TrEMBL record:
<keyword id="KW-0067">ATP-binding</keyword>
<comment type="similarity">
    <text>Belongs to the ABC transporter superfamily.</text>
</comment>
<dbReference type="GO" id="GO:0015418">
    <property type="term" value="F:ABC-type quaternary ammonium compound transporting activity"/>
</dbReference>
<dbReference type="GO" id="GO:0005524">
    <property type="term" value="F:ATP binding"/>
</dbReference>
<dbReference type="InterPro" id="IPR027417">
    <property type="entry name" value="P-loop_NTPase"/>
</dbReference>
<keyword id="KW-0547">Nucleotide-binding</keyword>
<feature type="domain" description="ABC transporter">
    <location>
        <begin position="2"/>
        <end position="237"/>
    </location>
</feature>
<dbReference type="GO" id="GO:0016887">
    <property type="term" value="F:ATP hydrolysis activity"/>
</dbReference>
<keyword id="KW-0813">Transport</keyword>
<dbReference type="Pfam" id="PF00005">
    <property type="entry name" value="ABC_tran"/>
</dbReference>
<dbReference type="InterPro" id="IPR003593">
    <property type="entry name" value="AAA+_ATPase"/>
</dbReference>
<dbReference type="InterPro" id="IPR003439">
    <property type="entry name" value="ABC_transporter-like_ATP-bd"/>
</dbReference>
<protein>
    <recommendedName>
        <fullName>ABC-type quaternary amine transporter</fullName>
        <ecNumber>7.6.2.9</ecNumber>
    </recommendedName>
</protein>
<dbReference type="InterPro" id="IPR017871">
    <property type="entry name" value="ABC_transporter-like_CS"/>
</dbReference>
Length: 325
């Protein structure tokens, strides 16, 4: 869907923001771009909607070189979300979301229906939040409106630059999870810039790790990046808490559990289900009296027991899984 073909950017003052880069982003993929400040992530993103022009190479979208396309048309076909949303302060939430549909000449009914649909999608109440002005919303709600506005015309590509960066950590996590759900639902191709490795591994189908000078150090699925960092840079960027990060990614499977042959009725049941993250399993174990929890399936039937040993084994299974590159 998006191809960086030998793309590089050197600014007029000689700063090399992006080194020669070859990278393909598949249709429906959510690719996270992660790296320290100044590693060229925003520059790279902005080359896709031509806010920045590359000094070498080409960017292809859907097989066509975007340098030959009309900039305004190109941008209308792409959602763009930035850290401080950039909502129009004197327009209501609904009017903000309706901006591009109106520009495209949609009639009132179609636009209103779309606005309502999008507000519901990002879990805001159309009747309550639609008529409000941006300053009457929380930071997290404003980001949701930013996402809704970017999705308004159902773009095939979404460019997101630190979209959740200005939201407090708790609100951030729920926004991330909801955005993950929205992405699964819509299948939009997304490039998402972040400097937060946790966000990158939580959301990305693949994660691209950049170092200074826009050098691509590794691009791989999240678990691969965490378990097999390709370079010393990636290893140090991930830091010491890889196990914790894996906990939030890996999910409990039936094979991880012990058979439920414990007669005790004391064992806590129902807090953990197959398919939950190991993080959820860990919290339940930590809160259990005997260090054992009964795990249920979607229908509520008990499928086995989880102990600290079994949790550890599940973590190792994930770490050693052949996840490809
Ligand atoms: N217009 C510009 N002129 C000159 N240098 C620039 C310009 N824009 C960015 N740079 C430089 O290019 C490099 C990459 O910047 P960029 O904003 O792409 O990095 P980033 O990884 O997105 O950083 P951050 O996480 O801090 O936003 C930096 O050294 C930056 O100072």
């Amino acid at each position: 869907m998006i191809r960086f073909d030998g793309v590089g950017k050197t600014y007029a003052d000689g700063t090399v923001a992006v080194e020669r880069l070859d990278l393909d982003v598949a249709e429906h993929e959510l690719l996270t771009l992660v790296g320290p400040s100044g590693s060229g992530k925003s520059t790279l993103l902005r080359m896709v909607n031509r806010l920045v022009e590359p000094t070498t190479g080409r960017v292809l979208v859907d097989g066509s070189d975007i340098a030959t396309q009309d900039e305004v048309e190109l941008r209308r076909g792409m959602g763009y979300v930035i850290q401080h949303v950039g909502l129009f302060p004197h327009r209501t939430v609904s009017q903000n979301i309706a901006t591009v549909p109106r520009l495209l000449g949609w009639d009132r009914r179609r636009t209103a229906a779309r606005v309502e649909e999008l507000l519901t999608l990002v879990r805001l109440d159309p009747a309550l939040h639609g008529p409000r002005y941006p300053h009457e919303l929380s930071g997290g709600q404003r980001q949701r409106v930013g996402v809704a506005r970017a999705l308004a015309t159902n773009p095939r590509v979404m460019l997101m630059d630190e979209p959740f960066g200005a939201v407090d950590p708790e609100g951030r996590r729920s926004l991330q999870e909801e955005f993950g759900r929205i992405h699964d639902e819509l299948g939009t191709t997304v490039l998402l810039v972040t400097h937060d490795i946790d966000e990158a591994v939580l959301l990305g189908d693949r994660v691209a790790v950049f170092s200074q000078g826009g050098r691509l150090e590794q691009v791989a699925p999240p678990v691969t990046v965490l378990t097999r960092p390709a370079t010393p840079f990636v290893e140090s960027f991930i830091g010491d808490s890889r196990a914790v990060r894996l906990l939030s990614l890996a999910r409990l499977e039936a094979g991880d559990l012990l058979p439920d042959d414990v007669a005790a009725t004391e064992v806590s049941t129902g807090q953990v289900r197959l398919g939950d993250t190991l993080e959820v399993a860990f919290s339940a174990l930590a809160g259990s009296r005997d260090g054992v929890v009964r795990v249920t399936d979607g229908a509520g039937s008990v499928v086995g027991l989880l102990t600290p040993d079994r949790l550890h084994a599940a973590l190792r299974r994930t770490a050693h899984a052949d996840v490809g590159a």
